[in-house]
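User: Could you check the structure of this?
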Amino acid sequence: MARPSIFVKVPRERIGALIGPDGRMKETVEKQLSVELQIDSQTGNVTITLSLTAEDPSVLFRAKEVITAIGRGFSPERASRLLQDDDTVLVVIDLRNIVGRSQSDIKRLKGRIIGKEGKTRRIIEELTDASVSVHGHTISIIGDMDQAEAAREAIKMFIKGSQHRTVYRFLHKKRRDLKKKQMELWKPRAPL
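Assistant: Sure, the predicted structure tokens are below.
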């Protein structure tokens, strides 16, 4: 009986990051998720197959997320965040869907989101606790649902042309809301 598998295409320049030094990243993904990775370094094609010991077939989708994250420019360490917590998600925004194939428009938007010397991207990451990668024609986010949504909303504001100060104000408010929500989770409940 054939084992379930899925396919991912990774940019060739990111294959080395996916495999990692001495194959450690590939090995980590295979071991933690009970999958087998077949990587074609010439084409960038990656086949993820469920291992014989796997109990849950949904690990294929988690492995696909990790591999996609590395392919979209995240370091293996940052992409590993997807392995550590089931509540962590990957969001990929394809700028071609927003501005078409115009390379100058894509470059301009990437510049707005990265900011001078990476300042804007760093502020988004600090205020949302999400990780942001700008690579090729995509902007990708790793974080829990609330973090990823706040970062995605800020990035959409930049794409629509909002001023930096407006987006920063939004992010500071979101950060306060997220902290407040976290504190409410730890509030002791009244006895029954």
